[in-house]
């Protein structure tokens, strides 16, 4: 992300809060605020707008979110520019843990990735296993829009291309370098396929012509972990704030809120709460 300092990260978080209309936290002092670096899907889906005020209410810690791709969020943690992470890029997370700058890494929730595209499905991928679907898109030359931002979604997309035996290149393949919401809009305008997390797509589908055209494959499981950052990453890290966030998000109130999120508007939850489970139990 290129955030030069923790001060800049705090300011960026405040701008995000203003931009998304979230009310300022009441009560906590500056010493009781923490920085959460997270994937864009938690913001674009609206989940943060529900969880963070409740976190502040229960713990007294104000949370300043920095919503970027999981890769950028993980780099912020590595540099000590965030206190806690909520991300969905397991291989990159494990690399971060191996550096010794983290505390607990716990499963929080899951949903799935979906391939979305024009209703006409020009490549004909609806009934195919996902790796075959990706190969078919490439073989047909159908337009595909990638986030191209080293996010968790982009990492999964690259894994799917590898499984399909495809090195995506050519006029049919385009990268935005942007978050999920922006990438969905670009794909919609171009009449292209893209890979999205289900939550962001459902939250934004009313403004899109795109439809889910391929889903349900085991390779599309999307797992989110919370990761504590410790002072080993930098002296400005607040381990008390990180611990408070981890304890709260895997606790009963947060897990219930996660399990209910989306049911009123979409008729189904956008995430499944998973505290106490392991990725292996989910098949990830």
From TrEMBL:
**The keyword Signal is annotated on this UniProt entry:** yes
Output the InterPro entries linked to this UniProt entry.
Answer: ABC-Tungstate_binding, PBP_domain
What keywords tag this UniProt record? Signal
Can you give the residue ranges of the PBP domain?
Answer: 28-252
SUPFAM superfamilies in UniProt: Periplasmic binding protein-like II
Where in the sequence is the signal peptide annotated?
A: 1-25
Superkingdom of origin organism? Bacteria
Recorded protein name is: Tungsten ABC transporter substrate-binding protein
**Gene source species:** Pseudonocardia asaccharolytica DSM 44247 = NBRC 16224
């Amino acid at each position: 992300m290129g955030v030069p300092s923790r001060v800049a990260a705090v300011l960026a978080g405040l701008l995000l809060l203003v931009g998304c209309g979230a009310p300022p936290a009441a009560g906590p002092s500056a010493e009781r605020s923490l920085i959460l670096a997270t994937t864009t899907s938690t913001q674009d889906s609206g989940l943060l707008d529900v969880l963070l005020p409740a976190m502040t209410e229960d713990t007294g810690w104000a949370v300043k979110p920095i919503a970027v791709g999981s890769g950028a969020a993980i780099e912020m943690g590595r540099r000590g520019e965030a206190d806690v992470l909520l991300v969905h890029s397991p291989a990159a997370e494990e690399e971060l843990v191996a550096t010794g700058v983290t505390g607990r890494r716990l499963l929080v929730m899951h949903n799935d990735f979906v391939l979305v595209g024009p209703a006409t499905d020009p490549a004909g991928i609806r009934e195919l296993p996902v790796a075959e679907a990706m190969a078919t898109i490439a073989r047909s030359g159908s337009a595909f829009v990638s986030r191209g931002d080293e996010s968790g979604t982009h990492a999964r997309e690259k894994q799917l291309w590898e499984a399909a035996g495809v090195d995506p290149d050519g006029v049919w393949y385009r990268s935005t370098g942007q978050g999920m919401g922006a990438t969905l809009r670009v794909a919609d305008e171009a009449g292209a396929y893209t890979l999205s997390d289900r939550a962001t797509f459902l939250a934004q589908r009313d403004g899109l012509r795109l439809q889910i055209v391929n889903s349900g494959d085991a390779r599309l499981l999307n797992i989110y972990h919370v990761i504590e950052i410790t002072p080993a990453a930098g002296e400005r890290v607040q381990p008390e704030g990180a611990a408070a966030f981890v304890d709260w998000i895997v606790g009963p109130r947060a897990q219930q809120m996660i399990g209910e999120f989306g049911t009123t508007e979409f008729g189904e939850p956008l995430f499944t709460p998973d505290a106490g489970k392991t990725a292996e139990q989910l098949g990830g």
